[in-house]
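To assess whether ligand presence alters the predicted conformation, the chain was also submitted together with calcium ion. Input:
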Amino acid sequence: MKLPIASVFLAGALASQAASAAFITFESAGPNAAAITATRDAFRGAIGGGTVAGANGSFGGLRREINWDGVPDAFADPNALPANFFNVNSPRGVVFSTPGTGFMVSANAGGSTPTLFGFPSDFQAFSAQRLFTAINSNTTDVTFFNPGTNTAATTSAFGAVFVDVEAAGVSRIQFFDENNVLIYSHDVLVAGNQGLSFLGGFANAGERIARVRITSGLNTITANGVLGNPNDDVVVMDDFLYAEPGQAEDVPEPSSIALLAIGLAGCLASLRRNASGLPRD
Ligand SMILES: [Ca+2]
Ligand SMILES: [Ca+2]
Ligand SMILES: [Ca+2]
């Protein structure tokens, strides 16, 4: 009676291991927000959580979002955005890093600093009205933490809105696990001048994402209205969406027969407890 149950468990564990490279991609591109909203909504639905943000961009404890729009003027163009703003000032469990010189969120209308980083013919906002860019670099690394702490964490999904992607094969998101191994990479769809692109990756087979690297075009922004080089193409970002960062203790890692054996023993013990009427853990 117990042998068939154990066999089913073993087969399930091996199937999970074989599928360990599985990521589901959500992507679309077009001239305006309407062109990518359905894809953004599908990504939201896959991760979980509602549509109304609670404190610190938390959606039911399942998902976090950053639309940059609540960043105060003191931390927006022409001022830099602190790399840990979204784990300290507004604790959402992400800290940024870049080989460039920092990060910037675009200015709101009505001030002395031009909106859209000073490129009104190239950029538009997806969520009104602030955008995000690294300064002096096309690379932004996003590392995950238990929100508001220095405890490293992982997530199962990350997606972003890109603005003004005009060159294929340049802008992309790369996903790295806890061992800094690249586990998934995907290029951002071209949207054309001033267009919007959405790209999200959702790991549905137990992979855990410790960091993502965003490559946004080949050019860079060094200051409002100033590009860093003559290359096409300059690209910035709007909304970031990701599954709630946390620990992965509930994720099985069938990395050896020994672990499988331990798991089988625990499974059978649990089954016996259950059969005896005791509650499950
Ligand atoms: Ca452009
Ligand atoms: Ca925005
Ligand atoms: Ca561009």
